[in-house]
Amino acid sequence: MSDFAAAVRLALDMIVDFDPALLSIVALSLSISLTAAIVAGAAGCLAGAVLAVYRFPGRRLLIVVANSLLGLPPVVVGLAAYLLLTRNGPLGSWGLLFTPTAMVIVQTVLAIPIVTAISHRALEEVWARYGDEFRIAGATRLRAIPQLLLIGKAQLLTALLSGLGRTISEVGGIIIVGGNIAGVTRTMTTSIVLETSKGNLPLALALGIILITISLVLNGAAFALSERKTRS
Amino acid sequence: MKLKAFAVAAALLALLLAAAPSWAQQKFIVLASTTSVDNSGLLSHILPDFTKETGIQVRVIAVGTGQALDTAARGDADLVLVHDPDAEGKFIAAGHGVNRREIAWNDFVIVGPKADPAHVAGGHDALAAFHAVWNAQAPFVSRGDKSGTDALEKRLWKAAELDPTKAGPWYKDIGGGMGAALNAASAMGAYTLTDRGTWLSFKNRGPLVIVVEGDRRLLNRYDVIELNPEKHPTAKLGLAKKFADWLASPRGQAEIAGYTVAGEKLFHPEADKKP
Predict the structure, then answer these.
(1) Chain A residues with CB inside 8 Å of B17's CB?
(2) Cβ within 8 Å, pair B17-A197
(3) What share of chain B is helix, strand, coil (3-state, %, to 5)?
């Protein structure tokens, strides 16, 4: 129990002190995970809408694939990205290995299936309810998509936040393609791995508490924002 | 309303990007290094001075020696700093590395629970200790990750004419780094082999203490190896050489010698007399 108490105290100390090293790690974590979540959010919502609105061969297969990729192991995506981005690999000349960009790519890939699956499910219901109306009004399916996204925006926020939940908590993929370089590719989660390996368990746990707190604040803010929107 | 939210998000993102200073361009090399020189704090102790003197940032990928050499062989690093003479020899023979230089040394120690079920405490013979652990079937944690430490452990078993693949469940191959192995040994009250640098800076020792040290077989040398320009023309060989030279220079050697944790010297400079 004393470990947990020590961790909580450490976490509070770091937050109160505005520890500059911590701040840059938090900033990097957030910029990588938010960027990945936003890119995956845009791509995933669009894919979800297309799957809900259009009927084409292979559609069912794509839905099954998106759903099964919910359990995509981050470490495998990281390894595949590593082999693509390594200097002698197919994309080696891009020079992206051990950079934040590589980490964003990995997390985006991991988050897209989640956003796609959740947004598809939500938009499918919306389409079932309003699709005929749209078509009677003469709108093409393409024209209907923006309307659909607007109507389903509350559920899409959930999809987006699920994507963010995936990216901000992820470590297996980014530690492979990022290399956990101090000040360059070291994030909250890779720091936790590192401090654990140094036997600095209370510090590792304190970083975890801070990460969870940040997640809570982000989700709280999104929730408050959507609440205000629905009321206004 | 939606636009405003987007603007806020975009502004926040821009702020975050600006706050991550290292995204800015700077002269840098990628050093693939063994974990012990990084986790022990040595590199973060000496690198700021090197960067201040030369303007070259050293980005450290701290992994096991096997993975460090593999990273460099793939062309993803500019320099390696490792501690497994056999694996280094193969790396150089395969044409990847040139100009190997020893820049520091210390030693390995066998740590184990204070209760010492194998009765090896106070010994100075690593092989005798391995025999005793084997006979007592006392829990033993193996890294199993092709690191320098793992390679030495396997050599010691071989020298003791014992085969750990035929050991019982007391022999635990955890497939992890030094820290993971120490955490596991600490939790299980097991013996394990560790480099002294990681041990001295490790904070979760639990019941573990040093039980065997001072065997010549436990010598641990750290070598810096430059990359062969013929195989790795895209590596930043010039900048990497500057850092390798600096490590071997009197200035770099003094920095290595000057690093202590709780008053104990973690690494000896190359010129220090070996036992």
Answers:
(1) 31
(2) no
(3) 45, 25, 30
